[in-house]
Amino acid sequence: MLTRPTLPVPITLAVAVAAGLLIGLGMAPMGVWPATIVGFALFAWLMVGLRMRAGFGWGYLAGLALNTLTISWVSVLGFWVGVVLVAFMSLWWAVLGLVISRLTTLRAWPFLVPAALVAVEFGSGQIPFGGFPWTRLAYTTVDQPMNGFLSWVGVTGVSYLVALASTLLLWAVTAPKVRIKAVAGTLAIFLLGGLLNLVPLATPEQSVSVAMVQPNVNRAEHGTGSYARSVTNNALSETIFATALARTEGRPVDFILWPENATDVDPIKDAETRRLVEVSAQIAEVPILVGAVTDGPTDDTRQTTSIWWDPAAGPGQSYHKRNLVPFGEYIPFRQQLLPMLPILKQVGRDSIPGEGPGVLEASVGEYRQLRVGSLICFELAYDQTAYDLIHAGAELIVSQSNTNTYALTFEPHQQLVLNRIRAMETGREVLASTLNSISAVIDPRGRVVERTEELEAATLFAEVPLRYNVNLAVRLSPWLSWLAVATTVVALGATVLRKRSDAR
Question: Membrane spanning segments where (predicted)?
Fold first, then answer.
């Protein structure tokens, strides 16, 4: 059982805020990953011996500090949007604080507290409206040895290991009798993670040549009638440049990748937009994977779509984004909320989610059936959406994003980290394609091979290996989440029984 001295309220407040900020410092763009390990240890220590209400309250304060540091970039959509998201996401840390205050009464607390962290991360990625799993502890490991575990146990398992390193260090500080064992356990986590990075990747036998187009856009035109056209005009212009450069330098190109919202008007139904895409494909003489906004299946709806566009046959297979952003891409309880909150009119037409994995087949170069897995923007954060691509046979992954709204904030850097995480988990190259942010070529080790800068038009060329392996993380990680939930529930039940036994 863990104990700590009683602290005055001002010191407790300072420790809660410090714990939240330290945890957040490990997230991009700061990337100070040791701070996260120290911060979570401090968070767990603070919850020791607290009543449930106090654990909830101080946990909430730590969550406010963490989320204000890491996700307040959403306030570019409106000050109160940022306030509401930060306030809500901090509730999960309040719940975690409450749970940890109970679990630290058990002897196995160093191993149970990390399970509770994983269970809460799982909940935050599901509730409500699909959740928002954007600040998981595993995201702090992209540039440290623990990232070697990502291909084996996935984000879920690595979040557990980050928290375990924290609780083992806390155990070492508070229990001198086990100090050597606890420190050795922490070092073993890092050593094994580093060794796993030495496991060789499967040698691919084939590859595909891709030109990634970053069109850029005049941000001052956003909201005007010319904006939608200018985005696609810029994509055409950069495609012409990329094609000329490839031919001048003798570079082979099998297909061209455009980002999300490269066409802001349905390119299948709108004649002018269709003409721009067709001209682009005909000039390039290769298929283009187009990121588009398309009309939805019902009146006054839309979908965010990836479409194969062949220079001769036109539009082919398409994928519609599955994980939609509430109050950004659609309005939950629209009929009830819209009359009360007129500001929600800015959301525009409701988006309709797609179904099934985003694996698109096309005849590309020498490949009759190239299978490309597409993740669209915030879908990166949802484990199962990424894993479904591998189960469906994706040979490489493209990540198409419109980050114009969040340019020059923390968000593009955090999204780049998520792309790197998915590359390591799935064992696939990831081509991160953005409208005017950080586009990048990422290898299966999570290394950024090449990248662009924000607010610039650019082209990246990549020779991308085609891979067919299914990493253990893709199969195991979803089960680890449920195991953590079950473990936490059982452990909480044990604390209730123990309290009743002590009362008797």
Answer: 7-25, 31-48, 55-73, 79-99, 111-129, 149-171, 183-202, 479-497
Nearest one of 181, 3, 185 to 106, comparing CA atoms: 3
Q: What are the residues facing 248 on neighbouring strands?
A: none
DSSP for 19-74 reads HHHHHHHTSTTT--HHHHHHHHHHHHHHHTT--HHHHHHHHHHHHHHHHHHHHGGG
Q: Are 136 and 123 contacting, i.e. CB atoms less than 8 angstroms apart? A: no
Token pair 């299966």 is found at 444
Output the average pLDDT for the chain: 93
β-strands 448-451, 301-310 pairing: unpaired
Lowest mean pLDDT among 62-66, 76-80, 422-426: 76-80
Which residue from 395, 396, 420, 421 is spatially nearest to 473, judged by alpha carbons? 421
Q: Which residues of 33-62 are buried (b: 16+ CB within 10 A; e: fewer)?
A: bebbbbbbbbbbbbbbbbeeebbbbbbbbb
Q: What band does 429 get if pLDDT is binned at 50, 70 and 90?
A: very high
8 A C-beta contact, residue 444 and residue 429: yes
Q: For the domain covering 207-326+335-468, report its CATH number.
A: 3.60.110.10
CA count, 13 A, side-chain hemisphere, 21: 6
pLDDT value at position 498? 80
Pairing assessment for the beta strands 448-451 and 440-442 based on DSSP bridges:
antiparallel
List, edge to edge, every strand of the sheet that includes 396-401: 359-364, 367-376, 396-401, 430-434, 440-442, 448-451
Which segments of 72-149 does DSSP mark as H helices, in order? Answer: 79-103, 109-124
- Global confidence as pTM: 0.94
pLDDT digit string, tens, across residues 152-175: 999 999 999 999 999 999 999 999
Mean pLDDT lowest among 35-49, 345-359, 363-377: 345-359
- The H or E element that residue 131 is part of is none
Q: What are the phi and psi torsion angles at 463 (to 5°)?
A: -100, 105
* CA dihedral for 122, 124, 129, 134, sign (positive or negative): negative
Q: Report pLDDT for 484.
A: 98
CA 361/CA 367 separation, integer angstroms: 10
Q: How confident is the model at residue 206 (pLDDT cuts 50, 70, 90)?
A: very high
Write out the DSSP string of 59-92: HHHHHHHHHHHHHGGGGGG-HHHHHHHHHHHHHH
Q: How confident is the model at residue 474 (pLDDT cuts 50, 70, 90)?
A: very high
